[in-house]
């Protein structure tokens, strides 16, 4: 909810979401620190009085809201003002709420209640609440009410929490408080604390890594981020449940088989064919579920006496924060691909339950030498292109590793060797083209691939193509992909040029810079690109922008925020090309955003939306938006057909203007159809959006 409230001010940068998630993880950690310090007070009644004051203090920060006047400051210093806004608005309420679970469990342990000797089952209950909220938000709350109403509803929920806390304290008081017969002593086992941190670190990092990997390499499916997070919470529920608790011994026995069956998918960074998407996604989710369940059951089985309950939760929270920092902040800076995923997978078997043993590196070392020798031989003899030979060696390696399953350390180190070797060797064989460059930052993984057979060079962001250019010198600079001559964009450009006057085009989304091929001395193109790594790639690996010269310029920043700074009527054409993956930037397709676009257009200006999407009906969203504003609009689906082999891409576009006369030439061209307002769809605003209503279910 809070991240969504910030979008109109900060734009669609993924760093906004990352910062919000890490901020809330850090506040959770601070809440556990507070709970631990408060729990050291011997008199429980004093604890309750002190916490009651903190509970009431949070009311001063509700309902949660942000001042619209700070948008300019946000755009100038985004990270600083994002943190400032979070601290001044949501930090205290979330901090107070995060203390509830450990404090209530600690208070229960200090009573004469029958469950006071093992209150950890309540941790399962609190995670069940988290899971219910996670599922309810996108499917129940978001489709029905805007964020302003959500904030008021959250305020009402907090008042309900205050009432429930009062009833809980009263119920515990009736059970009588057990005498504090011993002072608090610090858990002195440093090894156990390190184990808790590590066992929380791996699932936390793995959950984010699986999400990043699947979204980048398998499928950008709407709400896909929800499933890994739901499975992560479910493993906590099962690990700490009282009646349906899962044991680490059973999971440990299954792990070798699951790891050996699925790890090549993690190591290779496989881009799945469309027909196999769901099978590959299921395999990744199985790996996450069993790995997280193993780690969390080991944590639950090593839980200490209730006297150390709050300290125990602190170390778990610390491990979770560190795992999030590693995957969300460190990995994008260190790795050019989602390499943290196979690294975290390689760490899973070290948490298997069993008889302790000393590390034995002889077998893993022999395995590493064998893999290296086989790879050299295969490269020299070209057997690496022989499917049967590769399958035979792969089967032999799996069999050798599985034979070590009963020796935890030997298997773990041998499995780490396999994962490392496959991660280094396989990616070059599975991409279907030569990878000539890869880069990663907060916005994801970008790759430049070259197909020597088709003579095409492609820019991919995850699994979405953001530009194609021919490597044939005779076709260099020719617009391909969605901008192909004779396509929808080409029709609109012809319309603009027929007016016979100097014009300015604005384009939200740079990609490979293909739109620059339509620029000339009379038609200046200004690109707005939120990802700073895209411009150097467009200039280095593609010729569209370099050929354009002074007829093009590029502005780095969120398109809506940067466009808002332009003078009124500055553009004759605005092209929005930012909707080709599941991450539809909601702040770019709201009523408020559309009114801003219109203010930047000349009186006869034209809006062109690229609405192609494999999973979402973006055309329906934009149709509702432009017709709600009283604009005239036409849409066209351009099927690439056989021209796909030479670089054309199928595309859906929607063009809109204030008057019918401004689009008369479009109306007369074949393929364009008038846009009618969808009867069953509510246009989005900065306050309300509903991604669920756009999903293509078939």
Task: Describe the model.
This protein has 698 residues and is of the alpha/beta class. The protein has helices spanning 2-10, 14-39, 44-57, 71-76, 78-89, 91-98, 100-109, 121-141, 147-174, 190-217, 226-240, 248-268, 277-301, 309-334, 340-347, 362-381, 387-402, 408-425, 427-430, 488-497, 534-541, 544-548, 559-563, 591-600, 618-628, 664-667; strands at 434-441, 444-451, 456-461, 464-470, 503-508, 523-529, 552-556, 571-576, 601-610, 632-638, 651-657, 673-674. The strands form two sheets. It has an eight-stranded mixed beta sheet with strand order 7-6-5-8-9-11-10-12, sandwiched between helices. Strands 1-2-3-4 form a four-stranded antiparallel beta sheet, with helices on one face. The protein is flat and about 90 Å long.
* Overall residue-averaged pLDDT value: 87
Q: Radius of gyration, Cα only, in angstroms?
A: 28 Å
Distance between the termini: 29 Å
Beta strands, count:
12
Spatially, the strands of the biggest sheet line up as 7-6-5-8-9-11-10-12
- Weakly predicted, low-confidence segments: none
- The level of helicity is 40-55%
Would you tell me the structural class of the helices and strands? Answer: alpha/beta
**C-alpha geometry:** flat
- Count the DSSP helices: 26
Q: What is the beta-strand fraction?
A: 5-15%
Q: What does the main sheet amount to? A: 8 strands, mixed
């Amino acid at each position: 909810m809070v991240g969504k409230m910030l979008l109109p001010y900060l734009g669609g940068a993924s760093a906004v979401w990352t910062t919000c998630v890490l901020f809330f993880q850090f506040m959770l950690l601070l809440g556990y620190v507070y709970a631990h310090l408060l729990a050291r007070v011997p008199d429980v009644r004093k604890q309750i009085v002190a916490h009651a004051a903190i509970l009431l203090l949070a009311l001063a920060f509700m309902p949660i809201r942000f001042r619209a006047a700070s948008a300019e400051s946000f755009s100038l210093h985004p990270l600083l003002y994002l943190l400032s806004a979070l601290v001044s608005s949501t930090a205290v309420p979330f901090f107070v709420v995060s203390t509830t679970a450990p404090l209530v469990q600690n208070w229960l342990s200090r009573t004469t209640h029958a469950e006071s000797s093992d209150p950890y089952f309540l941790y399962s209950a609190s995670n069940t609440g988290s899971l219910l909220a996670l599922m309810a938000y996108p499917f129940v709350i978001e489709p029905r009410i805007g964020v302003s109403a959500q904030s008021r509803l959250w305020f009402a929920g907090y008042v309900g929490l205050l009432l429930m806390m009062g009833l809980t304290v009263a119920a515990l008081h009736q059970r009588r408080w057990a005498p504090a017969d011993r002072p608090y002593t610090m858990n002195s086992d440093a090894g156990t604390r390190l184990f808790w941190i590590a066992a929380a670190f791996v699932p936390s990092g793995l959950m984010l890594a699986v999400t990043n990997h699947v979204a980048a390499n398998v499928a950008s499916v709407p709400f896909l981020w929800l499933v890994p997070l739901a499975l992560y919470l479910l493993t906590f529920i099962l690990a700490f449940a009282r009646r349906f608790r899962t044991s680490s011994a059973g999971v440990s026995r299954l792990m070798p088989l699951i790891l050996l069956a699925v790890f090549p998918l993690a190591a290779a960074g496989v881009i799945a064919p469309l027909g196999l998407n769901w099978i590959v996604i299921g395999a990744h989710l199985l790996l996450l579920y069993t790995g997280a369940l193993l780690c969390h059951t080991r944590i639950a089985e090593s839980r200490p006496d209730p006297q150390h309950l709050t300290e125990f939760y602190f170390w778990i929270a610390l491990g979770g924060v560190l795992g999030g920092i590693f995957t969300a902040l460190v990995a994008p800076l260190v790795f050019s691909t989602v390499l943290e995923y196979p690294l975290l997978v390689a760490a899973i078997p070290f948490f298997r339950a069993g008889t302790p043993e000393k590390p034995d590196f002889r077998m893993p070392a022999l395995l590493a030498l064998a893999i290296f020798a086989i790879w050299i031989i295969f490269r020299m003899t070209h057997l690496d292109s022989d499917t049967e030979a590769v399958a035979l060696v792969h089967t032999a390696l799996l069999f050798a590793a599985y034979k070590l399953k009963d020796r935890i350390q030997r298997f773990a180190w041998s499995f780490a060797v396999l994962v490392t070797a496959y991660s280094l060797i396989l990616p070059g064989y599975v991409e279907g083209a030569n990878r000539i460059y890869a880069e990663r930052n907060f916005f994801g993984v970008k790759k430049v691939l070259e197909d020597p057979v088709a003579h095409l060079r492609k820019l991919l962001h995850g699994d979405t193509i953001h530009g194609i250019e021919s490597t044939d010198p005779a076709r260099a600079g020719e617009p391909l992909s969605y901008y192909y001559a004779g396509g929808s964009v080409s029709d609109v450009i012809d319309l603009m040029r027929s007016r016979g006057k100097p014009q300015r085009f604005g384009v939200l989304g740079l990609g490979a810079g293909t739109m620059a091929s339509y620029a000339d001395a009379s038609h200046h193109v200004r690109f707005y690109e939120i990802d700073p790594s895209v411009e150097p790639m467009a200039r280095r690996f593609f010729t569209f922008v370099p050929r354009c010269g002074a007829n093009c310029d590029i502005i780095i920043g969120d398109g809506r925020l940067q466009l808002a700074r332009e003078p009124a009527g500055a553009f004759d054409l605005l092209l929005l090309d930012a909707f080709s993956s599941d991450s539809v930037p909601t702040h770019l397709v709201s009523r408020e955003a559309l009114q801003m676009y219109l203010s930047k257009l000349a009186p006869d200006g034209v809006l062109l939306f690229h609405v192609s999407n494999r999973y979402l009906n973006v055309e329906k969203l934009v149709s509702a938006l432009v017709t709600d504003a009283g604009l005239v609009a036409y849409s066209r689906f351009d099927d690439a057909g056989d021209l796909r082999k030479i670089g054309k891409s199928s595309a859906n576009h929607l063009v809109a203007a204030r008057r019918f006369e401004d689009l008369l030439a479009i109306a007369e061209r074949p393929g364009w159809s008038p846009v009618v307002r969808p009867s069953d769809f509510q246009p989005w605003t900065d306050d309300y959006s509903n991604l669920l209503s756009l999903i293509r279910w078939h």
